[in-house]
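so i finally got all the pieces together for this one. its four components total, 472 residues if u count the protein bits. some of the lines might not be protein, just check the labels. i wanna see the whole assembly predicted at once instead of chain by chain like last time, that was a mess tbh
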Amino acid sequence: MNIRYFAWVRERVGVEEETIDVPASVATVADLISHLKSLDDNHAAAFEEEDAIRVALDQMHVEPDAILGDASEVAFFPPMTGG
Amino acid sequence: MNIRYFAWVRERVGVEEETIDVPASVATVADLISHLKSLDDNHAAAFEEEDAIRVALDQMHVEPDAILGDASEVAFFPPMTGG
Amino acid sequence: MTVTPLVRVQAEDFDAKAEAERLTGGRKDVGALVSFTGLCRDEAGTLEALELEHYPGMAEAELTRIAQDATARWPLTGLTVIHRYGKIPPGDNIVLVVAASSHRRAAFEAADFLMDYLKTKAPFWKKEHFAETGKTSWVEAKDGDDKDAARWT
Amino acid sequence: MTVTPLVRVQAEDFDAKAEAERLTGGRKDVGALVSFTGLCRDEAGTLEALELEHYPGMAEAELTRIAQDATARWPLTGLTVIHRYGKIPPGDNIVLVVAASSHRRAAFEAADFLMDYLKTKAPFWKKEHFAETGKTSWVEAKDGDDKDAARWT
């Protein structure tokens, strides 16, 4: 699965984009976050304030309980501050 | 007293501006309107729909019960339609 | 410290871009600029022009009173109001309001307020001149305009 | 018949006047044009620039969704949204929304709505670069922005 990070989430993870193999037990966005946190300290730090993380599945905003399904791209980022 | 008319009030009266002698009994804007209506048919036609007439005393909006006092200019016009 | 609004009543067209730049040029405290342009419209295709009559002197004075009211109510960094008079063909500009502020809510609300009050209080009157018939007709004030203005009281 | 909004995400500056003219030029059905410009502000005098990061693809898609929502909710004759990315120094433009309609209330509300939604939903993030210290800091989202957006639900 292709994962993208933006703003301080990107800075904490240390990469803009990565492709990871997701265990079959990972069904929802929340499951994926738990999995990513277990990978290493950088991921753990990025997702430390889980409430502050926003998620997009295939470039659409979703909530943490969203099912990953056959989405090809998941993005994690802080609350938006454009405009 | 100097009196000015605008828009269809002006067209009905037939003049843009006139100076009239106001009887001592005329104290308020409403008194002045009654006096003007008595002058001739044009004035009577202009003030026929009295509710539709707006008034300014020395270029400030006032209500019909406003005292003329020492105002030097009274203007009558329909509701504004600028913008 | 409230700003002094710029108010103009003129026959000539205005340049919305130049007016916007007057409020933003060379400064770093403007975060939001809202510009409202009112244009002469003719969806029926029957209008030759709108003729705008105004009360010289009072038009400027009343626009200034409304603009000062806006600068007292919202923290603006600048405010400009320009209203044209005379014959204005369809598609041409009639009125411009530009409000600048640090924050967008103030700029939006001040411009919106100004247009609502201007419609019901500034001494301007529109007369329609129809193309084919040569007839004319005074535009009637709308109840909706009074309701819009009442939103701010 | 709703209009198709024009959405652009770009590094270059925009020309608010050209965008306004694109929505009014040669037509007689536009009575009201509301233009909102958001600028980079630096009242403290400490900012070198704001750096705007965005999510390419989703930024355009999300702005388009918000703009289409606006055209469905208000009777607009035209709608344009332009958001810049990259480093933007104080005083420079960040975002432009232009809404055109027959009537002013629709143009005001659509532009206001668009900015509120854009602030909370469009994937852009601001990082402050400070001049003297060389330090950087991500701008935090404001609760007020969520409240502004909630006005429209």
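Chain C has four helices and eight strands.
The helical segments of chain C are 16-24, 58-73, 104-121, 143-150.
anyway lmk what u think
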